[in-house]
Amino acid sequence: MKKDKKQKAKMPFRMNLLFLAVFLLFSLLVVRLGVIQIVYGDDYVSELERTENVTVNTSVPRGKMYDRYGKVIVDNVPLNAITYTRYSGTTAKEMLETAEELNKLIKIDTKRVTDQDKKDFWLLKHPEEALEMLSDKEKELKPKEQYKLQISRVKEEDIEKIIGEDLKILAIFREFNSGMSLTPQIVKNKEVTKEEYARVSEHLDTLPGVEITTDWNRTYAFDETLQTVLGKVSSSDEGLPADQIDYYLARDYKRNDRVGKSYLEKQYEDVLQGQKAKVKNITHKGKVVETEVISEGERGKDLLLTIDMELQLAAEEILEKELLAKKRGGANRYLDRAFVVLMDPNTGEVLTMAGKQYVVDKKTGKSSVKDFALGNISTSYTVGSSVKGATILTGYQAGALYPGQVINDQRMNIKGLDKGSYASFGNINDLSALQKSSNVYMFKTAIALGGGHYIPGQKTGMDTEKAFSIMRNSFASFGLGVRTGIDLPNETAGIKGSEIKVPGKAMDFAIGQYDTFTPMQLAQYVSTIANGGNRMKPHLVKEIHNPINDSKSLGPVYQQIQPTVLNRLDMKDEWIKRVQTGFRMVMQPGGTGYANFSKADFQPAGKTGTAQAFYDGPNRIKGTEPEPTMNLSLVGYAPYNNPEVAFAVVVPWAYQRHQDHSMNKEIGYQVMDKYFELKKERQKADDKASDKEKK
């Protein structure tokens, strides 16, 4: 009994103690709520009502490209587009809900969805099952480590079930998730129908982050013409090139921005890109409640190129015609390309930069001719006698030769070497040596440059390293063997032969049969002779213009590209004029170019070239010695007494053995004839327009 009484006595005490504890806890809670309500109430209300101003940049179309006469070459075609912008605080679940709603309004391509995407999607859709994949110990790991384990444990049969509508939702969600925060991400910009565009527009209030806009795509008015030189632009899927992300991010680009990937598009990225439109989105509780345009943006500036597109098309047609003609019947099996460059020798403006390549599809066996304009700066070849003008001038400059010097052109018998011209010309001077393309004259000049002498049957005694040094340094002043400086990336300087201690190689160099040069280098070289000694920097952009809304006109000039003299030949004017005379004689009776240019009424001057070479092209059989072949070249300008256009033609691997042809000269004559034909037509049109104005 006493024990029961004691227990009954303890019960009220414990109950009272419990009630006291509950009372104290409620008191603390009330006090805390009071503090929150009275002291911090306004702060919390402000936080709930707080809005954020988020500025978003949207892309604008790139600048256009025009030819020198205002014809559009590269333009933009507008595309309806649907974008998504992920704001700070947006959860994956919210993005998924928006993707589900958007899927009801548009059709989406699911080809880009990967198995990894499907696994991520499955984990998102099945959070409880995903958690059960982890042991209690694994749940203590860092989220990244947990995620790796969960991904590895998603079963193939689970992701195989993601088909139909789920797959489409995933494709949309994938695009949502691939964009950077606060950066508009293209969800769809190809084949967006008017109906889709309208439906999305009507439901924007239920699609947080989704917007409708106008995107753009590059379009080329002349199809493949010059495309290898014009370059390419990354797609909205590609964004910034992986190897240049840091470079562009440091310049305020976003990861999904479209940029020039190659050549002119890349070289002039800064002006073609334009100024992005800026839109301020006012968000509340993570949702956009108001949008304000800060800046409309401005599309990129336009480029007026130096290219004459009508002449370019004509040159390409000539190249293609000649290539196919020489390939007919299976002849000239290694011949697969040809190049021609036309340049204003006084300004460096490139009027035409044409290249064509004959290709055969290995699967179908069908042949075609494709654009290879880029080969004018990216490939180099031994070009033969067309460089002899530089050899003669080098001889004058170094004192190894004097104007009018007579040399006996007979086959040379040097100890261990037998070398000569294609014919023995007897006693000839420097002008005749250029006119007839004497090799012996150049051989003996090279020997003299090395301090040697020719005595039949004996060694020359020349310092070949000295001869190479003098010739290469001099040739570089014309633009041969060095980069021309053209406003395009990835220009090659050519290939230098390494056997500089062999006398025969130095002699070969003097006739253009050792080092390799690009067609653009040849054009720069002959322009330097044509204009009297200034090595002009070639360029493809003539002017940069501010954009205007009129799609048919150019805006005001933003910048003019001025002619740039890279260097002046350290040579007497009379020496250069003498070589000019020799070049003129090449195109006159007795000259190597006369047969093809005899009917020309534009007064040409120039130099032909044939080089013994070895085939090292795409059809060479691996592991075999390269077969001997012949390269053809031609340089020139017109009119000879007041040059306004210079040209260079290169036809690598033109023929083998006795399949001789003059494709280089045929191309050169036709292209130059077309240039002056177009000039006359334009002059007549200008005169006609002038007469109308007067009336």
Account of the protein in words:
By secondary structure, the protein is an alpha+beta fold. The chain has 24 helices and 22 strands. The strands form 6 sheets. Strands 2, 3, 4, 5, 8, 17 and 18 form a 7-stranded mixed beta sheet that branches.
In short:
The protein is α+β, with helices and mostly antiparallel strands and about 700 residues long.
Number of helices: 24
Structural class, judged by helices and strands? alpha+beta
What is the distance, rounded to the nearest whole angstrom, between the alpha carbons of the first and last residues? 138 Å
- The residue ranges in which pLDDT falls below 50 over 5 or more consecutive positions are none
Number of strands: 22
Q: Describe the oligomeric state of these chains in a short phrase.
A: single chain
Q: How much of the residues is beta strand, in percent?
A: 15-25%
Coarse morphology: elongated
Binned, the helix content reads 25-40%
List the keywords.
695 residues; alpha+beta; 7-stranded mixed sheet
What topology does this entry show?
Layout: H1 2-39, H2 41-49, E1 51-58, E2 65-66, E3 72-84, H3 92-103, H4 115-125, H5 127-132, H6 143-153, H7 156-160, H8 164-178, E4 185-188, H9 194-202, E5 210-220, H10 227-230, H11 245-249, H12 263-267, H13 269-272, E6 277-284, E7 287-295, E8 302-305, H14 309-327, E9 337-343, E10 350-360, E11 367-371, H15 375-378, H16 388-398, E12 407-409, E13 412-414, E14 417-419, E15 426-428, H17 430-436, H18 439-449, H19 464-478, H20 503-510, H21 519-530, E16 534-536, E17 541-545, E18 557-560, E19 565-568, H22 573-586, H23 594-597, E20 605-614, E21 628-638, E22 645-655, H24 663-694
Parallel strand pairs: 2-8
Antiparallel strand pairs: 1-6, 2-3, 3-4, 3-5, 6-7, 8-17, 9-10, 9-22, 10-11, 12-15, 13-14, 16-19, 17-18, 20-21, 21-22
